[in-house]
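All the exercises in this workshop are built on plain-text protein records. An example says more than a description, so a record of this kind follows:
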Amino acid sequence: MSDISWAEAKALLQSGEWDAARFVHEMADTPLYYSTPAGENRAGEKKLYLLSRSGLPGIYQPAFLTAGSCRDFFTMLERLGFVVIQGTLAGLLSLLDSLPMKELGVVVEPGGPSPVVIPPGLRAANRPPV
């Protein structure tokens, strides 16, 4: 696990000092909370709870730094009966490869003021240690 905090790493990413691959490598063991992509809304309609970002190509799995922010986000979207899964950044990226979702990226704290975007296809094992 990196000795640097999420906030410090995010600042380095946003300043351009780090690229997304370095960020993923350094933050790979960071605990994250997320849910399965498929679910139901209050109307009983099945849907995928994935995100797109204007100006960015691809589709993204939402993830969160706390279980509470994960619950709040999906509740705001009126999603019913979802499970909050605790994992790590590396584990979530690896999970995406094991599902038919290899082309997904990840957005951490999508409802926050400055979410972290991990581009589609970038995985923790893609970059050797620095």
